[in-house]
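seq as requested:
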Amino acid sequence: MKILYVKYVCKEDKREAFYKAIKENKIDELSRKDKGNLKYDYSYSTEESNVLVLNEVWESDEDAQLHMKTKHFEKLGELKVEFVAEVKLEKYRAEIF
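struct tokens:
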């Protein structure tokens, strides 16, 4: 299982607009339908007013890689150019027993 913790540090006063654009383009909904997706949830940081957090869980590395080839992932990239100053990514692996 692949777990991704993505921290989007948004440009000043752009966090709400970024999240709204994600919802309007249904990036979260479409990503949840991608093969192997177990979790794809955005949340606001309670500590940093310009940070949007994404928690993703995928059944495999291959599923996560396929997700990154979708049109909605491409659209997310376009939105990041407009709204995001920096992306911080943490990757984890887990096994279910």
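Strands lie at 2-10, 37-44, 51-58, 84-93.
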